[in-house]
Known about the structure:
- The chain is α+β, with helices and mostly antiparallel strands.
- The chain is about 40% helix and about 15% strand.
- The chain has one domain: NADH Oxidase, CATH 3.40.109.
- It contains seven helices and four strands; from the N terminus they run ααβαβααβαβα.
- Flavin mononucleotide binds next to strand 3.
Amino acid sequence: MIDGTQILELITSRQSDRKYSPRPVEKEKLERILEAGRISPSACNAQPWKFVVVDNPQLLPQLAEAASARLLGMNTFAGQATAMIIVVREHANFTSKIGATIKNKDYSLIDIGIASANICLQAEAEGIGSCMLGWFDEKMVRKILGIPKTKRVELMITLGYSTADKREKKRKPAEETISYNKY
Ligand SMILES: Cc1cc2nc3c(=O)[nH]c(=O)nc-3n(C[C@H](O)[C@H](O)[C@H](O)COP(=O)(O)O)c2cc1C
């Protein structure tokens, strides 16, 4: 079991990597990264997700196109990714849906966020850079991958061997985001 310092080091070392080398991600690494998503916790264990893995060199540029907004300079780096995981929201189970209605909380989105974070952390542990993308043409992604119109595509995660330098974390100070025993 890794100790507390090591896990914090891993969390600190993960960053959104937006530069990748052409070296493909090995299948065993990709499988462990996916396993980290698959075994993630979710409200009422609903597991409201499907991870569509894309490593096909014909499909990757099409997905990169769907994520890019050239005028804004958004996500044009996605074309360098050698693999992507597309996170589709699936129906939650009955208990999770009832809970979500009663408590007015979108548990499925929380679940997807947790699974995606685990995916990115496992990627980091495997020496693979990642970036979650929330900005993309959802319709286009559905069309490319044959995802039914009724489903929401919540995130795209780009993967690849990073050639980016490690950056210092830019975060709000702890005094602003953490408090003890009162708001
Ligand atoms: C839900 C979500 C959506 C995001 N969408 C994008 C995106 O479309 N493009 C992008 O370059 N980064 C995207 N990011 C990455 C954030 O910009 C990044 O996590 C944040 O600036 C903190 O930097 P770090 O991940 O390097 O620590 C997204 C992150 C999250 C969690």
